[in-house]
């Protein structure tokens, strides 16, 4: 008896909950497709009665702030941070996971702590530091360097558990076969840890992709700022043009949605990472 | 056996990343202290004399009052978000850990709110809660109440931010609690049923106490992740109306990059650091205690 009723009740409940939960996302996409006049119609139209893609094409032609340009800036910043974070984090996590040396516990703790520090905490001194280095201005560098500080600790902490979990025999048999440390790492350890490497690359990318604070503070030239900064500016000056803003938002989540579809099963491990104890 | 070569390899591997973090995060934290004791503003940030003012910036900020308002706001916001996220996250965890069609897939979909850039979430909520937005439209048409200017009235503005952030935080709570739920052995429930316990009793007497470790880390990590809110506030309310939703992070930003009082911005950030530091210590202490009791 009980089984039969839960067979249809629970899926319906689950789907209903999800419809409510994901409504904001739906609303953004729907609004981006509505013509200006329909947006504030009362009562609201729950789906676009006339589909209007002007808010997308208008941006393409570059008449106002260019969405696609912002998209390109975000991509450069996110990819740059991803490269720095991955190149530095892979060896560091390998060192912490496979080697025992004095201070390794404190090093790990330092990574754990820096992962939790908010950007707003270090923004002012970082701005002054970059100013002295000549990196405040029309350049992506300061933003890339700053965003990598979010990816590095996350990647180190996540990958360390991956490397630490690999059996010791792998290294030993490689040694017997005459592999040096470097060859063992590239030929054996790294390929095995690849799923973990993909996770940290994805998250390093996403952290930087979502950044607003560094991009809008460090990059002086508006046309070089990330898409999030474009949205911020857009909301400040053109708050009435909601369909354009929503088109902006929809375009900016394309990579997030793609990543979500392809690496969904890894996301859970990323989410719970902050909770694992060193 | 710790061979010398092994030790050196370890350091060589770890130190580049560590130096990077020390240079771009560690140094700024120390420099924050130095900056907060000087008077650095837009005139003397690049060159010129930067006079030492001691604790003058802190004194001025506390006397002026907005800093205190922002501390109170941040704490109210953080506590409200943690409670709401926890309740809804637990409900989600309980629902989606049942075995039914699509359960796994639906649980996966929840994750998307955590992945979206906060800027986008802020924009969506700003639009939904705007004067003629879908929230007001629904309220008036369903006769649930009268039109509210959510984002420009103090308490409703705070409520909007709390709702938006709760939406972001639910997946995190759900996943941690789901993990916690899977560690509870099923036969405990069976024997409780035999003893005549009903569903509610089982929840209060078994589920919640057994989730305690997960709940501890949720509270502390939730605090740290919620406390640092920035984009959401900056975009949805910009700290307004009249500082009613001014948070510590947005205030520190405003001082440095809207008013160009860099030293005061650094001082406000330091106050924030002290609060986070205390919570962080608390967390490490709890983790250690838990490890001792579980080993």
From TrEMBL, chain A:
The protein's matches in SUPFAM superfamilies, at most eight in alphabetical order, are given as: MetI-like
Recorded family membership: Belongs to the binding-protein-dependent transport system permease family.
Gene Ontology cellular component terms for the protein in this record: plasma membrane
Give GO terms for biological process. transmembrane transport
> In this protein, which residues make up the domain named ABC transmembrane type-1?
71-263
Stated name of the protein: Carbohydrate ABC transporter membrane protein 2 (CUT1 family)
The lineage's top-level taxon is Bacteria
CDD domains for this protein: TM_PBP2
By its UniProt entry, which Pfam families does this protein fall under?
BPD_transp_1
TM spans (from-to): 7-29, 75-94, 106-128, 140-163, 184-209, 245-263
Location (main, coarse): membrane
- Which InterPro entries does the entry link to? BP-dep_ABC_trans_perm, MetI-like, MetI-like_sf
Membrane topology term reads: Multi-pass membrane protein
TrEMBL record, chain B:
Gene Ontology terms: cellular component: plasma membrane
Keyword annotations: Cell membrane, Membrane, Transmembrane, Transmembrane helix, Transport
Segments spanning the bilayer are 12-30, 75-96, 108-128, 148-168, 214-239, 259-285
Tell me where in or outside the cell this protein is found.
Cell membrane
The highest taxon in the source lineage is: Bacteria
Give a yes or no for keyword Transport in this entry.
yes
What Pfam families does this protein's entry cite? BPD_transp_1
Q: How does it sit in the membrane?
A: Multi-pass membrane protein
Q: Name one GO biological process term.
A: transmembrane transport
Per UniProt, residues of the ABC transmembrane type-1 domain are 71-283
Q: What is the similarity comment for this entry?
A: Belongs to the binding-protein-dependent transport system permease family.
Write down what this protein is called: Carbohydrate ABC transporter membrane protein 1 (CUT1 family)
Species assigned in the record: Paenibacillus cellulosilyticus
